[in-house]
Design brief:
It is built from four helices and no strands. With about 90 residues, the chain is an all-alpha fold. The chain is globular.
Length: about 90
Amino acid sequence: MHIVISPSKALDFSTDNRGFKITELMFPVEAQRIMSSLKRVTPEGLEELMKISSSLAMLNYQRNQEWQYPLNAGAVKAAVTAFHGDV
């Protein structure tokens, strides 16, 4: 089964995965290529590119900088369990 949910700006990575199975990336090479490019974009560039606030741009910039592959198993979270608030 696939579930599609709309994006949420509020994320909570402190809770567990509530029984959701963590899967591997389907396209790791492509993900690495995209993240390599995104890591070079400044917070101001992300703000303009994504049409978001400066604080949200900084948060995404930091997340981009911390991203690595292979993924850190302790930091991986099922997206549906990370969303907090209205989705």
